[in-house]
Records
---
Amino acid sequence: MVLAMKIDDPRQLRRMQAAFAARDRAADGQFVVAVTSTGIYCRPSCPARRPKPENTLYFADEASAREAGFRPCKRCKPDEAARDEAAVLAGIEAIRTAEGPLSLDRVAAIAGYSPAHFQRVFNRQTGLSPSAYARALRQERAREALSSGGRVSDAIYDAGFEAPSRFYEGMQGRLGMTPSAWAKGGQGVTIRWAVVETSLAPMLVAATDKGVCRLAFNEGREQLEERFPNAFLAEGGEEFATLLAQVIAAVEMPGTGAEIPLDVKGTAFQEAVWRELRRIPPGETRSYSQIAAAAGKPRAVRAAGSANGANNVAVLIPCHRVVRSDGSLGGYAYGEEIKAELLHREQKS
């Protein structure tokens, strides 16, 4: 019976063993590790001393480990990982379906947790507080309404903002342009750009006055116009030259350039994924499932892949550090050769 339930696939085992050895919190909830010498099972991030490899078994979930005769670790409490995930998902659903803002007390009650504990659990799993998640959701809805050509005032109130001032406070820094300009494809916004040669391929770099809004290989003005059809495109410029030099250096030496300002926008989940991508240390990789878990939606693996592909600034948001669970490279918008070279440079350095 144990053999039927434990993980035997060599590729899965290697990934799980690496996560367990690294005490990777992003892997919590994806599998559990049973220790035959003690009869317990743990989360991957359990702080306890690591057992001998020959004394470990890997199970897909807590139920499988219990059915095999193991009991939960009292130190890391692995069964709470599943409960925490269910609580966070319940909180997210409540926030998404509410007609207006919900208090922390109300969301926590729906999830079945105390407010303080729910706040900690929610922040750990999503990287945001419940209130910050709600704001991001309202901003996402407003962006979608603006992109479809709706009136700015209607989009603001329909998205759940109590007043236009609250919308502008949250959106200005994220959009890098006014909401009406965003709705009109960048109308009234100046984007400076250049195509430069790099050791990887010709590279397009474009930036607003807020930061880099596009970095792509083997693209030019035509593709930039498609993304920002109503923006004013200007080549070069003295201030842009300084930023361009920083970007080139970051591409030629991957793992640098964390200080380069960005002007990117996406849904709340996309931005959570991009934030997690920037947290991956140079020289390391993560799987799509690990990124989905770190972004707060462990079951949204396909959506994490889509968010990865929607990244507008290659290298600076390092989507090349995401690989398949079996360790193979997977896809890359600019070709696997460039992806492999970026990873090789980071690992070498």
---
Amino acid sequence: MSNKTIIIAEAGVNHNGSMKMAKAMVDVAADAGVDYIKFQTFKSELLVTSQAQQADYQKKQAKEDDNSQLSMLRKLELSEENHYELIDYCNARGIKFLSTAFDFKSLDFLSSLNLDFWKIPSGEITNYPYLRKIAQTHMPVVMSTGMCTNDDIERALNVIVNNGVSIKDIILLHCNTQYPTPYSDVNLRAMNAIKERFGVKVGYSDHTEGIDVPIAAVALGASVIEKHFTLDRTLPGPDHKASLEPNELKRMVEAIRNVEIALGCVNKQVTSSEAVNIVAARKSIVASTKIKQGELFTEDNLTVKRPGNGLSPMLWNEVIGKIAYRDFSVDELIELKNQDV
């Protein structure tokens, strides 16, 4: 992991089962400048029962007579051959491929691909055998924490750490799994509370509309940002409506990179860009009336005005009561003999 914010563009299942759309999404993500594009790897029959119903946000996008998760997911699977093809295409476009596994067979397959890290979704954080299997690979972990309490997080961390992953190789993503997430439910301050409580790096997996909250998360110190995107929000499918369109994804990346630069360092200092403004913006001690040589400088014959290339007004008390060593005209910068300062 580098020091810059890792940006994961979540393609998820927004390819709608089409490799043409999946590759188009790679193009969009690469053009936007993200670090990773992430898909989802699963075998439908291993992921859900035949009776499992869709979530409410999924039902809104489904046909009225088709509310089962199984029938929905079958249309969205990527084959192993699809994965290899997408990895090659990502390499050609200069973007890293990533995917989340949702069943044990998919975990084994992704493990063979030598990806940079595991991305654990919120729904698997209570899946003990899943967490154990991932931890036993000793690879770094990025884990979303939607629908979680601190106790849930602690238990999951214990499984991962006790089975072979160092705490320094774990990043927890604050998350809310409602699509879209109401701003009132984001609770972004919880991100750094997680950092302090568990001693890990943190990030944010966003499901709000727009790009405001992920940008704010970077300003608060997020190490990773994950955000869903789509080619077109009007496409049929469970996640399109709560996803960014291509121009929005690009704006988010640009804004995050600008915020990273703007965060700077912890020291308050005069920058080179603003140093040139000191003379124009600050003030100096000047004569408010004509002052003759030998007169005392007083509150009545001195004032402060721009420019700031003379004696600083912070020396006011040191100047008052000193003797003018020469004549000064109105608005002239006051000077003292060296021994008087």
